[in-house]
Amino acid sequence: MLTIALPTGRVQEDAIVLLQELGLPTEKLRSPGRSLVISEESVRYILAKPMDVPLYAHHGVADLAFAGSDVLWETSASLVLLADTGMGRCRLVVAGPPEMADRFLAHESNIMDIRVATKYPRIADAHFSSRGVQVNILHLNGSIELAPRLGLADCILDIVQSGNTLKANHLTVLEDVAPVSLHLVASRKSAHLQWDLIGDLVKRFQERKAGRSHDSA
Amino acid sequence: MNRIPKGCRNVGGSLAEAMTQSRVAVLGTLTQYGYRPLWPSGLQLSEVVWDRLAPHFRNRLLGLNSPFGEPCVLRGDLTLAAVAHLATHYAPHERPLRLCYADRVYRIPGPSDTELEQFQVGAELLGWEGTGADIEVLSLLLRALGRAGITAPTLVLGDVTIFSVVFDGVDPHLARALTAALQEDSYAAYYDMLGHHPLTPEKRRLLEEFPRLKGKPDQVFPKAADLLGSDRPTEALRSIVRSLGHLGFEDLLQVDLALFRELGYYSGPVFEVYLSNRGRALGGGGRYDGLLSRYGLVGQALGFALDLEALAKASGIRRNTPVPIMLWGRECEPEEALRLGEKLLSRGARVEMSWHDVQAFSRELARLRGYTWWIDASRRTVSQVGAVGDIPLDLWMEETFPC
Lengths: 217, 403
Fold this sequence. Notes:
heterodimer, A: alpha/beta, six-stranded mixed sheet, 10 helices, elongated, B: alpha+beta, BirA Bifunctional Protein, domain 2, Rossmann fold, 3 domains, nine-stranded mixed sheet, five-stranded mixed sheet, 16 helices
């Protein structure tokens, strides 16, 4: 039996569509009710908060998992990255009030010691450290966009999809950090010992991806 | 409040007992085969270990200064200590050297982990010893696991030298990038890179199929021969599998030709051990001749390390502990109680002495500690902990230790 961890929320539907395209059963998964563990045929699904999903595979509780590249970077879990699904695309960006834009374009000294609110403290630290900038990171769990508006932070580091939420909170993108998409990952143990099951899925996924790029060409 | 640093633990109780017994089981197996115990220094000089470890592993070392102002790290890896010991304590004609150890290592935990210190038990075979060395170390690993109560581990075997054959003729920059992708366990990056580089159809097929060669040896090796056009690149690995099979370990073996290990100093066969009821590897090891050469030594080196705590948790040792007894000696002469204790020990029991003034307290302590039997040394009676009534000691001994 394969155990697959799935993120709840924004990308859950994308993951279900993908599972269905790969030929896995998804009927019960589409109406799970309050269940967080769902068994269908020879697959067991675990529904978890996006930030927790990599841990299930890291500790070997799940054989496979779907997780955003943002979450994988933030948790730094030891996993086998099987494929970038290309779904759930968005961007990790630094955003802030428009008046911050000039400071980001100028010399790094202009943003030294700024306060950055984020759900991703490790990514924020890595990103600003790579620029040689020391910042004060404020770890928030949600509604990050409020922080600059209420004077809690100078800017934020967060994911942005359409940009509407940023606009509604009078924020603008100051710099891109990384593209984000949904990835298929496996625990190291499962990648070694259950490749007969996992490898087949990966192959089907790569064929599907190749077919799509062929179609679009 | 008596706290200890985050990420550290004082291990006691039945887990500590199981760890001690697992350690004895593994080291006992190894010392029978001539492996000598090594107690390495807890501190290592930064200048000695820095260039010998992969950059991502270096970043997990805990740095500190010794009181003498020398930049050091807390020992993050026991193999380096073993190689340094060989380099400094043994002349070339005294090799090979067989070492075993059970000690702590310290690594900064990743964001998904919490533990700063790990307990490792392992072995190293250093110096020239021919092909038999690989088989010796691997078979001893499996025998030691069996002695520790692990009856059906899975040993996953790979060989990093096969990569040089696979990447032969590939643009060196691409080969390095593909190797790095596999080293980082990123098949996504590996296949993405392949998709963006021009390659001959044969080479593309080889590079696409090669990381998928995982599974039982009898399925993987024929496919590998077909892909590589020859049996030769996998000869060393096949020889190991063949010998381990002859030793009766065939059912425990799997092959993964894309297997890499974290430490980054391996240069030949590598392996990891998995258990069915544990999500992560119990341990692993491999050949590291290249590391030996970085210490100015020529020859072959091979070793393994296991997570002692995980081994203890998975082992059946705790279920096989000798008859546990609390022996109350307060109402007789201490030497009389101790003599009785020795007699019980000689029959295979495990005895804890109790000298409490109040008999009821001693019985309660026995209950709290999970003992099965409580013995009154002065009256020479035995009672089952938690039950009412007692029986004469001689009768109980006849029934409990019939031999």
